[in-house]
């Protein structure tokens, strides 16, 4: 029987780096997910609908998945900036993600990689796998032993797939939504998941979802290349929760950008960036507080005071944080101006 060692040997032949330096360490991936050579009986299979895609304008690559399965995020979606994206599901084998990306990193296109890995996998007929590389080449496989309804549909720069679905209408609905949706890649991936759920989704119901979007080119700093990397481990409405988290991530990205601009004393753009953050997530008091802080640092005291007042009224702990921020240098050490800020707590309490 072909084993995990066959996969490793195959990858050795593909990769000049490993051919010179030795084979990679193997891994079980996630607890409960068997190796390719395992005969373990598994009733808890991550029956999943997913989409992999590339934005031809930006080069961004992404994966979005939803399933009735606990914590699908560590198992099914894989992506690397400037390399490719993988979705591995049904009897999911995380090695398809790990080895697939490694082989694409060394120049093999997605169809060649998937073909090679399937040929080395004795359990390939229980798998459902889709891959896309940085050039937009797409490949997908739905094994004959997948739980019905199961299938996939490949389009330009994307593939949608599902198994254990309520019907065969699910993945075509996902494809239509992705093609018709405007906006950036994360919006289009989310639209595909929503359409799949509206078409019936997993026959067992909803539980978990995840999304990864990476940059079109690598900075060699993976934490910078991951634009979105969000998971909903367990929820009665995981796609709705994922949508909320995406909104928050957009808001905090504006906030982080505002911090960078403030560090450069580019006050107008920093203020504008923080205002966008607050507009996206007004319920987050720290974003409102940081906007007030940037306004104060920029000399817009009168504009900052009503925001401080509202935050202090709703969340008094920020009064103490303000005092500490003066000590740390995050607020100006200007006693009269800081006292005006602290006085807003008294005014706010009177309302």
Describe the structure.
This protein is α+β, with helices and mostly antiparallel strands and 351 residues long. The protein has 13 helices and ten strands. It has helices at residues 4-14, 16-21, 95-105, 110-119, 170-180, 185-198, 222-225, 238-263, 267-280, 285-297, 301-314, 317-328, 335-349, and strands at residues 48-54, 61-67, 77-80, 84-90, 127-133, 138-142, 151-155, 158-162, 208-214, 226-232. The radius of gyration is 24 Å and the shape is elongated.
In spatial order, strands of the major sheet run: 7-8-1-2-9-10
Q: Can you give the helix content as a percent range?
A: 40-55%
Evaluate the radius of gyration. Answer: 24 Å
SSE order: HHEEEEHHEEEEHHEHEHHHHHH
Shape: elongated
Report the end-to-end length measured between terminal Cα atoms: 75 Å
Low-confidence stretches: 15-41
Secondary-structure-derived class:
alpha+beta
Largest sheet: 6 strands, antiparallel
**Beta strand count:** 10
How many helices does DSSP assign? Answer: 13
Average predicted local confidence, pLDDT: 89
Proportion in β-strands:
15-25%
Summarize the structure.
It is built from 13 helices and ten strands. It is of the alpha+beta class.
Task: Describe the structure using short key phrases.
single chain; 13 helices; 4-stranded antiparallel β-sheet; about 15% strand; 6-stranded antiparallel β-sheet; about 45% helix
Layout of strands and helices, then pairs:
Elements: H1 4-14, H2 16-21, E1 48-54, E2 61-67, E3 77-80, E4 84-90, H3 95-105, H4 110-119, E5 127-133, E6 138-142, E7 151-155, E8 158-162, H5 170-180, H6 185-198, E9 208-214, H7 222-225, E10 226-232, H8 238-263, H9 267-280, H10 285-297, H11 301-314, H12 317-328, H13 335-349
Antiparallel strand pairs: 1-2, 1-8, 2-9, 3-4, 4-5, 5-6, 7-8, 9-10
Helix pairs in contact: 3-4, 5-6, 6-8, 8-9, 9-10, 10-11, 11-13
